[in-house]
Amino acid sequence: LFCARCSAPMKQEENFCQRCGAPAGISKAPIFCAQCGAPIGDGERFCQKCGHPVGVPAVVPVPSTEAAAKKKKKKIIIISVIIAAVVLVLAAGGIVAAVLVTNHQREVATQEYIDTATEFKAQILLSGSKLENIGNQMESNWRSYIYNRYSGYTSPRAAVDAALRTKSSDVSAVKANDPVISDLYGSLRTVPDEGNKELVEIKEQVEDLYNAYSDFYGCVINISGSYSSYIEDFSKTDAAVVKEYKSLDGLLTAYGNK
């Protein structure tokens, strides 16, 4: 006999099911397998679908230690892969961001360098034109002393000093601007991008122009020697400044037109 409620086996003399307590005389209800849920026919002691004994509670499979370990290991591996992928994505993003920042900084520094070189060129032109005026006045006075006995100059020094007085405003402006030119030149001696051949070329041309200007400045402001040597030095240093100025101007123009 089997319990009508839970299908547990019962002895004929039992009035109540020992498993669920149902009376032995209750009408039989449909029976289903506790393991798989398939219907159980009358008198069947085993499920025809899964073979589970009738009246026996469902068995929950317990994974073996090895299987559980493998499952846990697989889960850890999957999580580790996900974490590694996230880290790589973040790292790649950080690298890209760092590269973009570095490139932007380099572009800003390069533009500042070009602007400074342009200002340096402008200051050289400003002071160079004044030095030409001073030098030409000196040459005129000196020549007058030599070839015009009515000039009133008693010596070459007197002729030079008279020229300096005549061009005193230009002399003051050139001397005041000399530290400005020196500071600009100092800031241009380091190129922000040594791999940029155009910037390196501009840097070298800045140096050539500064050296030419320094020679021209010394020739006019710190005048010495004879009249002929002065004329020769003045002409040579003046031409050198003009030449190096045009070269720098050409490089800056070409860079700006890229």
Walkthrough of the structure:
The chain is an all-alpha fold. The mean pLDDT is 84. It has helices at residues 65-147, 156-166, 168-187, 197-221, 227-256; strands at residues 31-32, 39-40. It starts with 30 loop residues before the first strand and ends with a helix. A two-stranded antiparallel sheet has the order 1-2. It has five helices and two strands; from the N terminus they run ββααααα.
What is the element string, with H for helices and E for strands?
Answer: EEHHHHH
Separate helix tally = 5
Query: Low-confidence stretches at least 5 residues in length (pLDDT < 50)?
Result: none
| Alpha-carbon Rg, integer | 51 Å
Describe the main β-sheet briefly. 2 strands, antiparallel
Number of strands: 2
Strand order of the largest sheet: 1-2
What is the 3D form? rod-shaped
Structural class: mainly alpha
Helix content: 55-70%
End-to-end Cα distance, whole Å, is: 102 Å
Q: Give the overall pLDDT as a whole number.
A: 84
- Note the beta-strand portion: under 5%
